[in-house]
Amino acid sequence: MWSKNWKRRLAGALAVSLAAAVALTGCGPKNKGEATKVRIGEVTRSIFYAPQYAAITKGFFKEEGLDIELTTTPGGDKTMTALLSGGIDVALVGSETSIYVSQQGSGDPVINFSQLTQTDGTFLVSRKPIQGKFDWNQLKGTTFLGQRKGGMPQMAGEFTLKKYGINPQKDLNLIQNVDFANIPTAFASGTGEYVQLFEPQATMIEKQGKGYVIASFGVESGKLPYTVFMAKKSFMDKNSGTIQKFANAVQKAQNWVQKSSVEEIADAIAPYFEDTDKEVIRTVVKRYKDQGTFATDGIVDEQEWNNLQNVMEAAGELKQRADFKALVNNQFAEKAKQNVK
C-alpha cells in the first residue's frame, strides 16, 4: 500500500480540502473575454502524455478560452495532496488514486472526467538480448527491478506476471525499494537482470546498448483508465463550464494525435522534452501510438474501470470495489466526443 507518510499527508489534505470547498469561488475569468486559468498537476513529465502537451502547443486549450498552468508534481501522493489542498485544479494521474482517496473517506470525492491514456506505459527490458522467441517463464529465478509498490505500473506488472503463472514474490528476486526516478540509473549501473521501465528511459537504455526492450506491459495487461484528468467534485460543480471546455480541448488533441504522423506529434511535444533527443521522442511516440496507448476519447469505459480494479485486487491493493458511477463522470467527455470534430 502507499506509505504511512502518504496516508498522513492525505489525511491532512482531506481536512484542508473540506475547508477549501466551503470558500470555493470558482476559477472563472474576472472580465468578460479574459481566459480562464486552470492549474494542472501532472504526476510526471512523460511522452506517455503526448496528447496533453499537444493540446497546449497546438492551441486547443486556448481555443476553448483556457489559460493552462502546468506543473509536475512527482508521485501520485504529491499530486493528490496538491489537488485535495487546492494547490491545483485538475490532476493528471492514475485512476487508482481516486479510489485510494475514496477509501480514506473523503467527503469531497475526486472525480475522473477525461481519460488520456488507456494502457500501461511500461516495458520489460532485458540486460541481455533474447535468443529466439521470448517466453515469460525465462524470468523465473532472475533478479527483477520493479516499480513502486501500490502504483499502477507495479500492479500492471504483477498482473502480467501472474497471467503467465509467475509469482513475483516467490519466483523472482523482486526489488521494489528503488525510487521511481532512480530505477533506470540503477539498472544501467548493474542492478537486476530485467527491469520494468517507462519511456523514454526504456528506449534510451536500448540506444545506449545497456538493455533490450522485449515486451510491453501495456499490451499484456489490457485496456485500463490508466491516466485520467480528475478534479474534486466541489470544483466540478462550481466550474462545470470550465470542465466542459477542458474536455473539449482534450478531445481536439486526441483527434489530432490520431490523424497526425509520428513526426508531427514529436514536433508538437518536443518543447516539453528539450533534453531528449528528437529521435528518441519519435521512437517513443511510435511505440505508444502503435500499441494504442493514447485514448481516442475522454470517456472512461466501465469495462476498463473494472479491469483496473481486477489489476488492483490481484496486487492486494484494493480494500473493496469502488463504485464506477460515484467516481466517474463521463458527461463532459461524451459531449466533447459528440460535438468536437
UniProtKB/TrEMBL annotation:
The keyword Signal applies. Keywords: Signal. Residues 1-25 form the signal peptide. Its main location: periplasm. It is found in: Periplasm. GO terms for cellular component: periplasmic space. Belongs to the bacterial solute-binding protein SsuA/TauA family. This is ABC transporter substrate-binding protein. It comes from Paenibacillus solanacearum. The lineage of its organism: Bacteria, Bacillati, Bacillota, Bacilli, Bacillales.
